[in-house]
Design brief:
The protein has about 180 residues and is α+β, with helices and mostly antiparallel strands. The chain is built from 1 helix and 9 strands. Among the domains are: about 40 residues, no CATH class; about 60 residues, SH3 Domains (SH3 type barrels, Roll). Helices cover about 15% and strands about 25% of the residues. The chain starts with a strand and ends in a 5-residue tail after the last strand.
Length: about 180
């Protein structure tokens, strides 16, 4: 930023200042100094620049048209000249006897008894980003799903209560 001299008190002032900090004289902005006769000229310059930008955009788009010109982009084939779509061949029916239906019961998750080694947060999902639903007290028993992940699904009375960090649970209690 440049320094200018205040015309009233002759002190150095930043060129972007609107007033002199010493005497308080107001400085006119550069845009305020344009006369009424120069403003339409500026408007025409801006319109000319916008027109040039539009013309350059048109030239750039023209360069993306294929060598055959815009006519090569037009599809001249009619629907009557297109070949008919292929007809799928019928698939032979399966002549084997169908497999007998087996009734499958919903298996309960494999669980194991664990005890909270310390205060343990039970979360809505397997990670710290999930909200805490409840807190296990040290020595409190829960059933956990067996998978060997860092987070275990915790159950109480056969109902899932949330996820607990596996490191906070012990296989046996010291009590």
């Amino acid at each position: 930023m440049a320094l200018i001299k205040c015309p009233q008190c002759n002190h150095s002032v930043l060129s972007v200042a609107s007033r002199c900090p010493t005497c308080g004289r107001r400085f006119h902005r550069i845009s305020d100094e344009f006369s009424a006769a120069e403003r339409p000229r500026r408007r025409w310059l801006l319109l000319g620049a916008a027109g040039a930008a539009v013309a350059l955009t048109g030239v750039a788009v023209q360069g993306m048209v294929p060598k055959g010109g815009a006519e090569s982009l037009v599809v001249t084939a009619s629907l009557a000249s297109l070949p008919p779509p292929p007809v799928p061949k019928p698939v032979p029916a399966d002549t084997r006897d169908p497999a007998p239906e087996v009734e499958v019961e919903a298996a309960e998750p494999l669980t194991a008894a664990r005890w909270a080694a310390t205060w343990a947060n039970v979360r809505q999902g397997p990670g710290l980003q999930y909200a805490v639903q409840e807190i296990l007290l040290p020595g409190e028993r829960v059933e956990v799903a067996v998978p060997t992940r860092p987070w275990s699904e915790a159950y109480r009375a056969g109902r899932r209560i949330g996820y607990v960090a596996r490191d906070l649970l012990d296989a046996h209690t010291d009590q």
